[in-house]
Amino acid sequence: MANRRLFFVFFNLLILSISAFAQTSTITISIKDANRSPVAGATAVLTDKNYQTKTSVTGSDGTATFENVDAGDYKISVNASGFPAVIRDIPSGSVGIPFEIVLSPGDISESVTVTATRTQISTDDTAVPVTVIGREEIERRSVNTVGDIFRSLPGTSTVNEGAFQVRPRIRGLESNRILILVDGERLNNARTSTGQSGIEIGLVDLEQIETLEVVRGSGSVLYGTDALAGTINIITQDAPRRKDGGFRFGARLNTYYSSNENGRRGNLAVTGSSKFFSFRVAQSLERYENYHAGNTDGLGLGPVDGFVSGSEVGNSQSHGGNTQVTTRFFFNDDNDLRLNYERRRAASVGSPLLTLDFGFNAYFPYSNRDKFSGRFETRNLNKYLAKVSASFYYQNQKREFSNQTVFRPFVDSLSETVTDTDSYGVDVQSNWILGSRNFLTAGVSFFRDTNEDARLALNRLNGVANLTTSVPRADFGSVAFFAQDEFTLTDRLKLIGGLRVERFSSGSEQTEGFSLPPGIRQFQLEDIGVADLAIGLTVNETAVTGDFGAVYRLTDAVSLTGRIGRSFRVANLFERFFTGAGSIGGFLVGNPNLVPESGINFDAAVKVRTSKFAGSFTYFNNYYRNFLSSTSAFDNRDCPVLILTPTTVLDANQCFVVSGNPTQIQQTINFGKVRLQGFEAELEAPFRIGDYGFLTPNGNISYLRGDNRETSEPFNIAPPLKTVLNLRWNDLGNRYYGEFQTRIVNSHDRLSTSFIASNSGPEPGYAVSDIRGGYSFRREHFNVNINAGLTNIFDRFYNEQFILAPARGRSFIIGTSWEIK
Length: 821
Prior knowledge:
By secondary structure, this protein is mainly β.
């Protein structure tokens, strides 16, 4: 009997082994150029219907091999230096049969995104508008800073100027209303001011970026607070695996020079890889002096306007460096671990035009970031559970902000604020296969920010120095559950729905050096909700959000998409607890009673793509409530809240000032209803010109209209019509290229009456043009790329709309990369 049982066990195991062997095979991809020559060094990523991926790099024969592949339908994406990225379908009948892909320099590049759905998916298959910028395009643009990339993308613009301070604006919203991720982890922290600054995207070194993904519209279901207007995911360079035996070292040197501000940047990276381990170590250094605006002749600008001499913009310098160490451990094909450390240092970061001669000086003596992170992935656990990934991070950002007010002939006051913010988080995500048509992404996430700060205020007139704390020791964080389901209703229609439940907690402690102004009357402190702020407060709240979308493939080349979703942003530590003199004047107190900003976001799009044509048109209508903004504070009697002085005399009702000079209190409040709507369109169509190469016209156009539904006036900070026109030429081998680009921003006069009065008129429009070109030399183990150009070629003097400092004038730029792999 025992022998019979043993026989049946052995027989069953044999059948299972034969079945498993029969159902797996090898996919071989042969990648060639238009001349049918093998393309070496191309990265091929194989994706199954459940978004599980395998990666292979072609050798000298141009072949990428994927072993132990189950029968089924797949997509293959190929990225090769000097060629457009392509995505191809591999039907189930092709498994085990060699598959050939021909790369043509005249084809349109195709992109995948991980940000829009938390899984790798083609941008054409998403229900949200997304733009992906790869490493090769970043180098070709030869920009000063990460923020400059957003000037020419659809639906985006920029805030501020300089080599460190530029930040993105998406569909009229900016600062902490945009969530910035680095490798899927939050760069935003809860201590950063929303109204006056926002997260410093310059804390990410441009040379470390592999891909930049911009999702326009709500991202709150997948990523939580701050993803109100959009989500930007900065994916840093990785340490790829070597599939064959042995260990191989590589190196890459990138250089950059800009003549306008004598800007220099260099990055050296060393890599090593084997079948089980890989690493990448990189070091960057950068130095930018004051930049020069466009032609200022006849404008009469001088030191009192913030200009050092001629067109040189004072206090616009910055210096810095970055160290990054990435390691990966490959236990087998289904399990791997990534560990990463990054050290970013920035110093003497100026605020353009704000100089002592201008009357107000502001800059960051330093702004530093240290981050350690790790991610473990395990795949193919069973037929239902396709993947589980667990990631964690710890980040410290420490910076000093200094501002000085001048009363000639000496400095009237000096304020220095040091903020020290620790952030840490954990994210666990799982991918489930629930039948042949249902794919579920679900997980939990947790993050917490803790903050300490100190502020030194020195008054030179009376010699008084005070060491205080603007924000008490405080923390902010959340625990969330999220789920997003993709259901393939038919071969052409896919439905996508998501839900997120998140519990937030923020609190302050009794902190030495933190106090409320003694001149505020106690009953008014109670009226505006801050009576207990100095002894500690805790605020808890829950946010529930969801979205629903659809992708309908009308034909193989045309798809229709739509999505409606709710977004939100919870008030941060600055808005709840900051108490002190503002850097731009006045005295601000916190407001623990704030409710989250929220929005309903609707997007509808049509997308068209063939190998020789790509275009899209997106209409959006976003409605927001409970925006946060600072305004004068009033008590329950509608009397202004004041810091009284010994000379202050109030009227009989103890409400309004009769004499004296008290300070008006400002407080962040929820206000109003805002609607932002518009459209974004993109177009690209390459044409072959005989043996001379390809000519590719491309560009985008964006329109935005903002309405304050509370006051029936325009919502001011909503850039209007923007058009980007680009004409690119490249030869048949894609070794040489040249392009001309013009960005046109229409004048903006649809503004509120008060804004036009304070602005002395509408916001003027402008057109600025760039020209660039380059050369690529590619071999299997050695690449050289040279990119050069002339930006603002007509040296136009202009300002980005709603920005005080002028934009950079004409500049010659040149960037190179030298790679051994």
